[in-house]
Structures are given as C-alpha cells and as structure tokens.
Amino acid sequence: MTDRVYPSAKPNGTAPTATAANPNAAPVKNQMYNPNRVPYRPTPTAYHRHNRRRCSGRRCFCMCCFWSILIILIILLLAAIAGAIFYVLYHPQRPTFSISSLKISNFNLTTSADDTTHLTAKLNLTLSTKNPNKKLIYNYNSISITALSNQVVLAKGSFPGFTSTPNNITIIHSTLSMVSQVLDVDSVSSLKSDLKRKAGLPVTILMDTMVEVKMDKLKSKRVGIRVTCEGIHGQTPKGKTPPVASTNNVKCKVDLRIKILKWTF
Predict the structure, then answer these.
(1) 39-77 burial, b if ≥16 CB within 10 A, otherwise e?
(2) 160-204 pLDDT, tens per residue?
(3) Global model pTM greater than 0.85
C-alpha cells in the first residue's frame, strides 16, 4: 500500500506569525537601514522665525543709535574746534554802551475831571557805543529806546541804524517823549513817591535793536540785543534850564536775545 504525504500545517517548521495569530492586525513593514538617507531635521516654527526677526530689528536699531550719536559727537567736536580757531584769530568782544548825559526837560502829571491822571514827559539823552574789536564790524538796525522809572514808562524814542567799525566810538543823541499818557493808580503812586526822593527820580534806559557782525568775507545773521542802563537819577525841571541827571554810577549791560550765532558766506 502506497503512503501519501500531506502538507504540514506549519511550513518549514516555522512558528506562526502575528498575522496568522491576529488576522486583523496591520502588516509590519520591514525597516531597512539606508546610509545615504539625509537625516530628518524639523523646520523652525513660526515663533522661532519671529524671534530671529525681532533680534535682527533690535540690532539694527542699536547700530542706528550708535552711528547717530557718533555723528553728533563728531559735529560737536568740529564746531568746538572751529569756535576755538575763530576765538584765537579774532578774539570777539561785545560792544559797550555808556550814558553821557540825560536831561528831563519836561515832566507833568495832570489829573482830569474824571479822576484820570495823564503823564507828559520829554527827555534829552546822549549816549555812546564803542566797538572794542580789531577786525569785527557791527551793523545796527534802528534802535528803540525806552525810559522807565520802577517799571513805569516815562518816554519813548528811537535812533536810526548805523555801522560801527573796529575801535570806533559812535555818539547817539535822541529825544524821548510821552504825550498825555493815561496812568493807573499804582503807577501814579509810584511816581509821586519817587519824586519826593532827594537823589531824584530813578530812571532806567532800555535799548533794543538787531545787529549783524561782519569779518572779512563772513557775516552773521542778525541777532537781537538788549542794552539795560541803570543807576540814573534825574531831577524834574523847576525853571527854564533843565538840570542834568546824575550818571556817575550808571552801568550798561548788553544781553544777546539769541545765543547762537549762525554764520553764512
């Protein structure tokens, strides 16, 4: 009788696979090592990209601040050097002013029927200005002149513009006047109190003008100056000849209304 060979339920004698044990499981893929494969690197997230842009903007801002400050410091240094050279070459000095004489030729306080007080005054002023520089020329605009007594305006006048050359002295004659100026109660009280003083009525002279400075081919922009002269005491006229005010202790101060001079060619 011939023997029949039946196929074995376990081929090749191997153990049953997981698929055979669990037919519903997903098939397992064989993982093979590939030495030429580029390793996986995750791309940066949006937060990292935003953070890098922010750091770059901050760096640009810092660099702009640094260069701006450096440029400003260089400009200031060059301006200081130019100013030092200008001072050494020209040694600029402010003009000087002095009061030569002052006469109060007319001074009247009158009270009208409506109890208002009017001031009528006339002053004759002579002053001098000197240019102490050797190479600078001063070109003055017209000068407005005001006489005050304890902040009360007594009279006003003006003087036309002129040129002051180096080491030159200019004499200025001006007539200041006030016609029937209405005064308030405080001003009237102040004037009447000052008129009783033995030294005389205290007078302050204010002068305002614009001046241009020239040197060689250079000239400055016109700048404002104010001259304040204090220490004047004048007597009101009691006869035909007005008395001369005391100007022995007068001091005139020159102030620039604009502190920065701009030079142009």
Answers:
(1) eeeeeeeeeeeeeeeeeeeeeeeeeeeeeeeeeeeeeee
(2) 999 999 999 999 999 999 998 888 888 888 888 888 888 889 999
(3) no
